[in-house]
């Protein structure tokens, strides 16, 4: 093997493989944690198996070459990038359901009607806040619908205060229906 080949393997190929391995295993680990929090019990152990298998392969190369600082940089860089990639994938998957709680000093009638007409289940009540009378509106929806609902809120009351909370479990509710023939791969689990 020539010196150029040895240099390429030691300082380019192996660090790149370590980096990519860390990106893969940390991405899988991030998704595994999300799936656990969403109650997807069958998928999480499968992902855990591949996460650790890839991690062991990356770590074995680092431990074989503890004197090469480039391997440590590749390992740490892959960890950081894996977190980023995992969160981006999770964001795009938008699994599960959320509760949006909207508090508005403006009458919420138009907002409630618009959300209902868009197919979202809405619960509302009159309340009293620190600055007087308010309407509190609750809406449970799929995470993928957050952007649409926040746009509706901003259209009817741009100064409304709202919070978004993840929901792990719900008993029943009104949810937008999917297009005819489409099955939801991650249905809302009912409490026992």
TrEMBL record:
Its main location: membrane. Belongs to the UPF0316 family. It comes from the Bacteria. Residues 30-86 form the DUF5698 domain. Residues 120-168 form the DUF2179 domain. The lineage of its organism: Bacteria, Pseudomonadati, Bacteroidota, Bacteroidia, Marinilabiliales. Keywords: Cell membrane, Membrane, Transmembrane, Transmembrane helix. InterPro entries: DUF2179, DUF5698, N-reg_PII/ATP_PRibTrfase_C, UPF0316. This is UPF0316 protein KEM09_00395. It comes from Carboxylicivirga mesophila. The keyword Ribosomal protein does not apply. HAMAP family: UPF0316. It is found in: Cell membrane. The chain crosses the membrane at residues 12-35, 42-63, 69-87.
């Amino acid at each position: 093997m020539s010196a150029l080949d040895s240099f390429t393997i030691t300082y380019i190929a192996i660090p790149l493989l370590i980096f990519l391995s860390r990106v893969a295993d940390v991405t899988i680990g991030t998704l595994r944690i999300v799936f656990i929090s969403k109650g997807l019990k069958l998928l999480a152990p499968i992902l855990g198996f591949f996460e650790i298998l890839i991690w062991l392969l990356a770590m074995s190369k680092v431990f074989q070459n503890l004197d090469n600082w480039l391997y440590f940089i590749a390992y740490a860089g892959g960890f950081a990038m894996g977190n980023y990639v995992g969160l981006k994938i999770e964001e795009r998957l938008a699994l599960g359901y959320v509760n949006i709680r909207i508090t508005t000093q403006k009458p919420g009638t138009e907002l409630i009607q618009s959300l209902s007409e868009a197919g979202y289940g809405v619960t509302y009540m009159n309340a009293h806040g620190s600055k007087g009378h308010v309407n509190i509106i609750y809406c449970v929806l799929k995470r993928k619908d957050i952007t649409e609902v926040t746009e509706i809120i901003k259209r009817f009351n741009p100064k409304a205060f709202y919070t978004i909370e993840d929901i792990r479990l719900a008993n029943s509710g009104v949810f937008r229906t999917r297009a005819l023939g489409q099955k939801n791969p991650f249905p809302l689990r009912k409490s026992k």
